[in-house]
Design goal:
single chain; alpha+beta; globular; 613 residues; eight-stranded antiparallel sheet; 20 strands; seven-stranded antiparallel sheet; binds glycine; 32% helix; 15% strand
Amino acid sequence: MKFLSQALRFAGFLAAAIPISLATSSAAHAQAAAEFRPHPVDPKDWPKQAVHAPHGMVATDEQLGSQAGVEILKRGGNAVDAAVAVAFTLAVVEPAAGNIGGGGFMLVRLADGRSSFFDYREVAPGKATRNMYIGPDGKLIPNDNVTSSVIGYRSIAVPGTVAGLELALKTYGTLKLADVMEPAIRLADTGFPVSEKLAHEFAEEKTSLDKFPFSLHIFLNDGKMFRPGDTLRQPELAATLKRIAKNGAAEFYTGDTARAIVDDITKAGGLITLDDLANYKPKVREVLRAQYSANDRDGRAHAWEVLTSPPPSSGGVAIIEAMNMLQTTPLKGWDDVESVHMVAETMRRVFADRAAYLADPDYSDVPIAGLTSPCYAKERAATIDPQHATPSKDVKAGTPHTCAASAAADSAPTTVSLNDGPHTTHFSVVDAAGNAAASTYTLNDSYGSHVTSPAGFLLNDEMDDFTTQPGVPNALFGLIQSDANAIAPGHRPLSSMTPTMLLRDGKLSFVTGSPGGPTIISATLLSVLNWMRLGMDAQSAINAPRFHHQWMPDLILMEQNFPESMEKALQARGFTTKRRGHIGLVNAIGVDPKTGDRQGAADPRDNGSALGY
Ligand code: GLY
């Protein structure tokens, strides 16, 4: 297994004007829109421009995923129809991350203003226990042991994806499940060419995949291994997808598929039962929102609104807390050490709060209002030394509180309301009417538990997102998490997945999100700051170098494309730095406020693909 395939100015309070220079459309861009553009990985060759299109846009990790989304849009489907089609397609063509054996979130915002957050996060099985990953020596069972929280049958949480996708489609879609599943079924049935990336991944994961018979059979070609250009057909998955298309999500949770999943898990000593599957319920939650007033480069005020992910995601709370803390910071860009310093110090504090307070909101009283309140952010920001790094051991979680009514009216430039590798994948969709869907879904680790069900799909290892041992970092991401996130039957493990949107003057402006465990939060936050605060166009907002600080360990991770001078400048301020190949894979869509042009920006750090029409 690999560890993280290794990221306006507010009226009266921001010193520097933040230019909002959204790219304009051009005939050349529109022409390019219909073509898929594979992105080379060498930063020198990264695309400088987003893909532009006048109607709809889909940005995903994989060409075939984006094509499936556009196919559905062109057939008259809306953004949610297309998003569900993409999700099922990625389950076929991106097995490491795309999944029906895991869980995720989808943020939907319709052009008429309605919005919902679909939570199809996995839950702990009924037989799960608080200390199930602690060995007789009192220590966490090591990662390479097939009874650990990261590999094998005991690491699997009850999957939520199929139920969640069906719920999103029933709530906002316009097409039938069978219609939107067509591209996925076709690709599973007839197969698709194995890319160099996929062949490389299978080889890299071989020693873990070949422990499990169906993983060996399907992804390692019964030990013969796939070469680039070979055709990967997945008849077991095709049959399962056809049954789901015919019978709906009930097939997965109470039908033949449920029985196939549970028979195999039971024989191998896993915990999930037929009751666990039958009892699984996706949830519709209120979108977490924060409003900001900001001036454009021309001095005109614009109203910005952030729509983001509520718990059990920790990401939306973190992003709003961070944006509130950064209100008074004149961000200049990521070649400016003061800007990097302030954002890293903000992240440090936000992650300390995450460790203390965030958990499944159905079982824990998460202080969302306090953590996202402007006066708490002001207090928290005041602890930052703008010249020197604060050691993480000296940073404790704060005491979140909401602003008194009068104080809020006097001093709060934002208002926040609640009315609304690690391999995960994020995709964004905007349709011709301006409806949008942003979805991040996951198996947790790359290839999840590495167990493939006889029904043809990989199963997650999401149990490691629980606090497997209080005070001890979790296995995959090194995150310290609270007791409120302890393992308990039916609980959802805390997530960092953060599908997010920005509205500008009430209209859709930016749709974003990322994979990457805790670095999801940083990658998504940076994309939002790049678009809203630094006025970057969509592709620049995705290409810009990324960094990440999660409080513990006390390290700032920096992508390779930062110059050495920045690393040295941060070290001189007391930061411990560490280079990371890439942080996050953001697939985003911007909307030009004047022309409505959709700007698809897929992440060039991998095989991201933006495709529009
Ligand atoms: N499994 C990664 C996350 O949900 O944050």
